[in-house]
Amino acid sequence: MSQASTLLGLCAKEDVNEGQALKVETSGLTLAVFNLEGDFFVTDDLCTHGPGSLSEGCILGDAVECNFHNGVFDIRTGEVLAPPCMTPLKTYPVSIEGGRVFISL
Fold first, then answer.
1. How many helices (H) and strands (E) does the chain have?
2. What are the angstrom distances between the C-alpha of 31 and each of 2, 25, 35, 46?
């Protein structure tokens, strides 16, 4: 028996410029919404290594470099690409409906 997922609206597509990220705080979550060439990805905003905000990090292709200790994550998968980070980022399934970005919880 599968559990139904809940859709949570985050922002309008136009709120996030291509190659940029937007910090969104909603429903007790602090998230980073990334726009990579028109494809949207959502991760937790807080770096898994320290207090860095990934929405304020440097986006390099499909990766984001944390502005705190310079750890690097794959935006698409959450995978750690460079130390000192060791723990992957939580990522969320994204859907676009009516020009808005949603995640499934």
1. 0, 11
2. 26, 6, 13, 8
> Percent of the chain at pLDDT above 90?
90
Element (H, E) at 40: strand 39-44
Question: pLDDT digit string (tens) for 25-43?
Answer: 999 999 999 999 999 999 9
Q: What is the pLDDT of residues 63-88, one digit of tens each?
A: 999 998 899 999 999 999 999 999 99
Residues with Cβ < 8 Å from 77, sequence gap 6 or more?
Answer: 88, 91
- The residues facing 47 across adjacent strands are none
Instruction: Give yes or no for a contact between 63 and 79, defined as CB atoms under 8 angstroms apart.
Output: no
What is the predicted pLDDT for the residue at 4?
Answer: 66
Backbone angles phi, psi at 73, to 5 degrees: -125, 150
Residue where the block lists tokens 């979550």: 29
Domains recognised in the chain with CATH numbers = 7-104 (2.102.10.10)
